[in-house]
């Protein structure tokens, strides 16, 4: 995606959940490489996004847009016109939640489906989905001597039983 010389003045990209831990570093990197960044946030104006506004080039090249990944129209509005989308937004509870199916899995899956559908409709050239080691590594039957790769998946029942 990078043009020669590392300048990406014509490239507009979207980062979902821009204020989160991983996404904030990504926004910083993209701005440093000259991209125009659409960052989605759920509560525009909240102090929790102030660090983004202080990033180098943020005043010229970063636009924060209100979007909830569970609201398709808000996602589409943030994505349209972008050549790439980095989907990072996801519920990431810091403690064990009472009903993970409803509080974590459903919104993560529905939110990702909304983002992918919006990318398709908006003719986005490239989508990068940030997953987690939790998707592949929580499985007591993984061979100890084998590198974890795309053939490996966490064991759903084991995850449920261990509240992972
Ligand atoms: N942290 C790590 O070391 C690490 C490593 C590998 C993978 N990951 C993965 O990277 C992703 C982000 O992790 P993180 O640690 O950066 O989490 P985080 O700091 O909690 O950030 C999550 C972001 O998701 C947004 N979000 C949650 N639900 C949303 C919804 N319904 N609509 C729109 N935005 C929503 C939040 O937005 P608002 O702030 O606007 O509410 C928040 O900014 C997760 O999938 C995680 O599994 C993280």
From TrEMBL:
State the InterPro entries in the record: Epimerase_deHydtase, NAD(P)-bd_dom_sf, NAD(P)_dehydrat-like
* UniProt-recorded Gene Ontology molecular function terms: oxidoreductase activity
- Iron: is it a keyword of this entry? no
UniProtKB keywords: NADP, Oxidoreductase
* Listed name of the protein: NAD-dependent epimerase/dehydratase domain-containing protein
Traced from the root, the source organism's taxonomic lineage reads: Eukaryota, Viridiplantae, Streptophyta, Embryophyta, Tracheophyta
Residues covered by the NAD-dependent epimerase/dehydratase domain: 13-147
**Superkingdom of the organism of origin:** Eukaryota
């Amino acid at each position: 995606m990078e043009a020669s010389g590392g300048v990406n003045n014509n490239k507009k990209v979207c980062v979902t959940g821009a204020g989160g831990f991983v996404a904030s570093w990504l926004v910083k990197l993209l701005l440093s490489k000259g991209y125009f960044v659409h960052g989605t946030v759920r509560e525009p104006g909240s102090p929790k996004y102030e660090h983004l506004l202080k990033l180098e080039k943020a005043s010229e090249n970063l636009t924060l847009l209100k979007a909830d990944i569970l609201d398709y129209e808000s996602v589409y509005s943030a994505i349209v016109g972008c050549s790439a989308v980095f989907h990072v937004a996801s519920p990431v509870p810091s403690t064990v939640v009472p009903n993970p199916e409803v509080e974590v899995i459903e919104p993560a899956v529905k939110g990702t489906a909304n983002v992918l559908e919006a990318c398709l409709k908006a003719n986005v050239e490239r989508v990068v989905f940030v997953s987690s080691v939790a998707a592949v590594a929580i499985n007591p039957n993984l061979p100890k001597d084998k590198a974890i790769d795309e053939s490996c998946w966490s064991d759903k029942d084991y995850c449920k039983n261990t509240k992972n």
